[in-house]
Amino acid sequence: MTVLGIILLILGFVFGIPILWTLGIILTVIGVVLLLVGAAGRTLMGRRYYW
């Protein structure tokens, strides 16, 4: 999810499409939060790993 967010950020910046930029930010933030929660060993919504 983080990688997809970064790709959308880059595409939104290069092509000047604001919706891609916004979606990229949202996906990147969600991906980083899930990565941190999973690395801390906590379960979230019944899942321990997200990769």
Number of helices: 2
Helical amount: over 70%
The total count of strands amounts to 0
Number of domains: 1
Give the rounded overall mean pLDDT. Answer: 84
- Sequence of secondary-structure elements: HH
Judging from the principal axes of the Cα atoms, what is the shape? elongated
Task: Give a verbal description of the structure.
71% of the residues lie in helices and 0% in strands. The protein has helices at residues 2-15, 18-39. The chain is mainly alpha-helical and 51 residues long. The chain has one domain. It is elongated. Helix 1 (2-15) packs antiparallel against helix 2.
Protein traits:
mainly alpha, 51 residues
Question: What's the short version?
Answer:
By secondary structure, the protein is mostly helical. The protein is 71% helix and 0% strand. It has 2 helices and no strands.
